[in-house]
Amino acid sequence: LSSWCSVSQVPVAEGKSVQQTVELLTRKLEVLGAEKQGTFCVDCETYHTAASTISSQGQTGKLMYVMHNSEYPHSCFALFENGPCLIADANFDILMVKLKGFFQNAKANKIESRGTRYQYCDFLVKVGTVTMGPSARGISVEVEYCPCVIANDCWNLLMEFMQSFMGNHAPGVPSVFGTKHDSVYGPADTMVQYMELFNKIRKQQQVPVAGIR
Questions:
Q1: Residue 12 carries which DSSP code?
Q2: Which protein family is named in the record (predicted)?
Q3: Are 90 and 146 contained in the same domain?
Q4: Domain check: are 94 and 48 in the same one?
Q5: Residue 203's CB: how many other CB atoms inside 10 A?
Q6: Which of 138-147, 167-176, 180-189 reaches the highest mean pLDDT?
Q7: By mean pLDDT, which of 79-83, 109-113, 148-152, 153-157 is the weakest?
Q8: Is the pTM here over 0.70, yes or no?
Q9: Alpha-carbon distance 146 to 4, whole Å?
Q10: How many C-beta atoms surround the C-beta of residue 4 within 10 A?
Q11: Helix (H) or strand (E) holding 177
Q12: Helix, strand or coil for residue 114?
């Protein structure tokens, strides 16, 4: 089980770098009274169907995302675009090496979000810098309402809290809400939100963003 949470992208403030915008957000949280609770990291590697498999079976290529989340150190998540999410144990990565005849790792596409965790009352907030290679590409904000696993019971409360430090950049209802509003939320739902956020940031990469260092 996982408590209901929202994962969203926050735009870089005008005239600021990614890092300066992250600092503005975390300062707002600290003014509210949020306390630092360590760090977090979510990473994602992209695999595409090997060319030999496509030509021999006449299939169209599929993308698979293999993801890790420091909140679940013993798990690995394998997600297909518009498809299921498989939760496996941490050595799933070794299996992917053995499957390289079927899935090729698109190494240049590795993306991760890394940052600080904050606790504020019943909320857990993670503000992350999203990086691809050596440069910062964007900002992710994950907000979790810890006592609740049913979306319908807490979305308004979550939204109100997000507006308190994200202002008009607070997100709308995430796509997983459509299928989950009355059912129990799980870790895979969080990973789907990160996958969607990472793919959105990848698509925005025609314009380089200021580096974090």
A1: P
A2: Belongs to the Mediator complex subunit 20 family.
A3: no
A4: yes
A5: 8
A6: 138-147
A7: 148-152
A8: yes
A9: 7
A10: 28
A11: helix 177-180
A12: strand
